[in-house]
Amino acid sequence: MTAIVSAENLTVSFDDFLALDNVSIDVAPGESFGLVGESGSGKSTLLRAIAGLSPVTDGRITLDGKPLDVKYRDKAFYRQVQMVFQDPYGSLHPRQTVDRLLQEPLAIHGVADAERRILRALDEVGLGSSFRFRYSHQLSGGQRQRIAIARALIIEPQIMLLDEPTSALDASVQAEVLNLLEQVRRDRKLTYIMVSHDLGVVTHMCERLAVMKNGKVVERLSSSDLVAGRLSEDYTKNLMVASKGFVRDVAV
Ligand SMILES: Nc1ncnc2c1ncn2[C@@H]1O[C@H](COP(=O)(O)OP(=O)(O)OP(=O)(O)O)[C@@H](O)[C@H]1O
Ligand SMILES: [Mg+2]
Predict the structure, then answer these.
(1) Does ligand 1 come within 6 angstroms of the Cβ of 172?
(2) Cβ of residue 213 lying under 6 Å from some atom of ligand 1
(3) pLDDT per position as a tens digit, 111-137
(4) What distance in Å separates the CA atoms of residue 73 and residue 31, rounded to the nearest whole number?
(5) Is-contact 91 146, C-beta < 8 A?
(6) Which residues are found with C-beta within 5 Å of the ion, ligand 2?
(7) CB of 41 sitting under 6 A from ligand 1
């Protein structure tokens, strides 16, 4: 496999604290790769390191086989890789219209066909053009997250970094947004790296996953391994027990 994204022996420290300790992952083109682990285990730090937002002190990140400068990402990188954050309230400016929010990334990247892209993105996230001139403070949490996803998609990236993209949403809205992400991935042949504390979500959305603990990857599994309970770490078993509703369907 030639990885589209790989992290090799990645280390991130905040002062003396080692938030990522020698972490390696390989993500195949078109794959959806999950990151799970208890709170504070380093999932967001890893995703942010790939996006150029964590202070990497050691290791390598490659994109399409080419090493990235670990400290600096150029615009071309963000054209290929977009990130969606957990909190749809914090990530969108409340006093801007949807139109303005969608224009912004197009302006940053100097994309010309704004009209077509805005309509396509709104359609793709299931909102439609009637939402175009609404303000983000007039939207529900689920609608905001759809706009955050539209803002990422409008650049037509190849890779999406998704940090708990639905955990702030009600269960029914969560399912809708996950289905939307899955549909978009198929339609656009995207690659996802997705953090979730919900193992049910990860087995539904991802082919393979890495289990993180204290800044390290402690286990690598396929979703079918996880569903079948083929895992070696007690820590992973405990995560399954803690992930509400998951254990019901699975023999641990
Ligand atoms: N900017 C920062 N400065 C100092 N410490 C940080 C910073 N960002 C993260 N950390 C620490 O690094 C560790 C990993 O944090 P991270 O956000 O990656 O965890 P996580 O696995 O995403 O957890 P959660 O499931 O709660 O989101 C935590 O102990 C956190 O306190
Ligand atoms: Mg996190």
Answers:
(1) no
(2) no
(3) 999 999 999 999 999 999 999 999 999
(4) 23
(5) no
(6) 44
(7) yes
Burial class (CB in 10 A: 0-12, 13-18, 19+), 110: exposed
d(CA 166, CA 226): 21
H helix and E strand count, the chain: 9, 10
Tokens representing 220 are 């690598």
**Residue 171, number of CB atoms within 10 A of its CB:** 8
14 forms bridges with which residues in the sheet? 17
Q: For ligand 1, is residue 45 a contact (CB within 6 Å)?
A: yes
Burial 33-58 (b: 16+ CB within 10 A, else e): bbbbbbeebbbbbbbbbbbbebbbee
pTM above threshold 0.70: yes
Give residue 40 CA to ligand 2 midpoint distance, Å: 7
Q: Which of 10, 12, 14 to mutate to test the pocket of ligand 1 (most atoms within 8 A of CB)?
A: 14
**Interval 167-224: pLDDT, tens:** 888 888 899 999 999 999 999 999 999 999 889 899 999 999 999 999 999 999 999 9
Q: Which atom of ligand 1 is nearest to the CA of 195?
A: 22
